[in-house]
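Handout, section B. The chain below has 371 residues.
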Amino acid sequence: MRVKLKDITKFSKGTQINGKNLIDDGAYSYLNGGINPSGKWNEFNVSENTVTISEGGNSSGYVNYMNDAFWCGAHCYYLYDGPKNSKYLYYALKSQQERLFRIRSGACMPNIKKSDLGNFIIEYEKDEVRQEEVVKVLEKCELLIEDYNKKLTLLDEAVRARFVEMFGDPVINSCQFPVQPMTDICDIIDGDRGKNYPKSEEILDDGYCLFLNAKNVTQKGFDFENCNFITREKDDALRNGKLSRGDVVLTTRGTVGNLAYYSKNVPYENIRINSGMVILRMNRSILNEIYFIELFKMKLSDIKEKIASGSAQPQLPISTMNKIILMIPPLELQNQFASFVQEIDKSRSRIQKSLEASQELFDSLMQEYFG
């Protein structure tokens, strides 16, 4: 059945704490809206197993579930005096996350009014036995998803550990390997930003050449869930900016420092970068691409601090990349490290497929239970 939220639970805002007064060793989390707690406090004002909804800011409408007692700030609603099974209510609301985002008001500072939240309609099963059954199934799916994510994190840690074992700390070059400026050992290729740069109406959902967007190059490499394309004619009209196998793509505007490797496993033969990226084409007699990617990631914080420019939208201009100094171990060692990473990637691929299958199952069950 469909119900208004105010008919099955009560909700209120918490009490604000000055962020400067938060304490590192507090016993309780401080949640003031947002996706995650923003600090610790030594008291709590809301008990455990509570559903929260962010009230203000860019995350307003975000649904969270607090397993432990916590201090709720003034920019967050907490739900109380509701169903016995609070986790069921959490799933019912979480399934409608996008709809919650759409009831926000306020252009400069989005927020959710208490009246709008109270009138928000969800699909709701009153039978408590059925609620318990639904929660058990969904929790099992979430545990699987969490387990697969942990395994992926452990693989990432294994790669970093092997890198340090073989090459030391790359920021201080603790093993004293020879160094060279990045611009001396790889070509940095910009895209064609001239008159032939694709206009919005020339970007297609399907076509001859994949035209990369910001979502395609992530912290974990390529992601092709949302793709844009251009025609063969438009591709032929463009000059620089087309990938060859073995190239590395680097994001240089907005989210600076994401890297993706155009290996033989990427399923697109024709790919071009957009204006917020560059192509890095290695001198393979000096530098292995897989070694370079891990080296760059481990130096990224230092690189951003010293080189990235632009406060509103951080940038890494080509003109300043010659300030990036890279350590160059013997190529044989680099290749050994690359072989290790490739073996890890095989395990990562298997786990990733299992993770995606589990997430798909969870999403379909949420749709089945809550519409």
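Note. The two ends are 11 Å apart (CA to CA). Compare this with the example in section A.
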